Amino acid sequence: MADIASTVKDICLLWIKFVFALGKAAYRKVVPVQLKPVKGEIVLVTGAGHGIGKELAFLYASEGATVVAWDVNTKTNQETVSEINQRGYKAYAYHCDVTKREQVFEVAKKVRQEVGRVTILVNNAGIMPAKTLLDHTQEEIERIFALNVLAHHWTIQAFLPDMKKNNHGHIVAISSIAGLMGSEYVVPYCSTKFAVVALMEALQQELRLEKVYNVGFTTVCPYVTDTGLCKKPKIKFSSVMAMLNPADVAKAVMKAQRTNEVLVTVPKYLLYLVTFTRLFPYEVGVLVRDFFDSGLYADS
Ligand SMILES: NC(=O)c1ccc[n+]([C@@H]2O[C@H](COP(=O)([O-])OP(=O)(O)OC[C@H]3O[C@@H](n4cnc5c(N)ncnc54)[C@H](O)[C@@H]3O)[C@@H](O)[C@H]2O)c1
Asked: What SUPFAM superfamilies does this protein map onto (predicted)?
């Protein structure tokens, strides 16, 4: 009897909290949260030498953050940093192959000594070879996993301890729309991007249970972006679903981080579309896919 009374009490409490949380979310749609300041933060961006990472490095630096740019391409990474410095903002370039765990820890130590403790980590670097699964070699699949998902584990292991110690920080992961819906010719890529969504969600729960409340988690899933990563995009409604501009994606990423969003797509409506479609039988999802007929072709 006591058990039943306690369960009924828990269910009532859950409903009250549920309605309160919904009300809060609705209120936030009308009165958006204030942007978290990034001035004075140390923001590390992986893959800062090109594309979305480069734009993110510019954007954070222009908002007063100190940017630490990591890339395996020393030349383009240095170009990003020189351009930021020329505009009077603060940035530092480090060569780092994020697929190599030891190197990540070594370079992280150097960054701590030379720049300071990283407070915002943006795991952005990624690759996307496009071909059928049977055409992917073992080495290629391992490389995609090493960069697109394992590297996130290494950088998080390197920088999260300081964030936890200071109960201050933010981890941002660039997944993809391919991390929410599987797509032809990029099977390993999709696996890694789904894995990134899972990694972020699981880690966020781990920290919540450890009562580390001031380390934020933001996962961003952009649609096809004009950086050259997607070599042969397939877009049916090009007037309404054109390739995104990397600068616009970077703006959306920074806004999501500064408003503490947990999971967003760029553009935002795609998250609703994907979630809504999943409520229906598989065949309905196929109809929606075929209607939009967007994705990509194999690289060659
Ligand atoms: N471009 C798109 O259509 C698109 C769409 C959705 C998601 N994304 C994701 O956004 C992220 C950035 O994509 P992008 O289009 O800007 O890519 P990009 O190819 O323009 O830039 C990637 C950068 O990562 C660097 N890099 C590659 N391997 C590295 C390594 N081992 N260590 C460190 N740096 C390395 C490259 O040198 C390059 O500067 C990726 O995670 C990608 O999956 C891209």
From this structure: NAD(P)-binding Rossmann-fold domains (SSF51735)
